[in-house]
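>> received
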Amino acid sequence: MDAIFQKVEEVIMPFPGGICRSGSKVGSLRYKLGASTNHLYCPTLRRIVPDSRVPEGVECVYEIVINALTLQAVKKAMSEGAKVAVETSGLRKISAANFGGKLGPDKVPLREILTL
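>> returned
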């Protein structure tokens, strides 16, 4: 996450170290929480969640949350993060979500940020 902070202005990452495990989702299935664990991407729930999106053999899923003053800053931060991530040993997949627009209307396709 250092690459993002060093190369992109107008960006914050609200979780400690910029990373949260298992990903998150807007809302909760049982409680009135603003966010909860995204069970589809939680490795420990893979065997009990019928529509799990965690591939066999994957033991950890990280979510990198980026908040920024401009959409361009979000795109640049995603680009810098992806460039570093692909060099990480054991990386299986990178994906992105906009939570159905519940956190804002913008959607940034990953293919678009790879050209920045």
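>> The first helix runs from residue 2 to 7.
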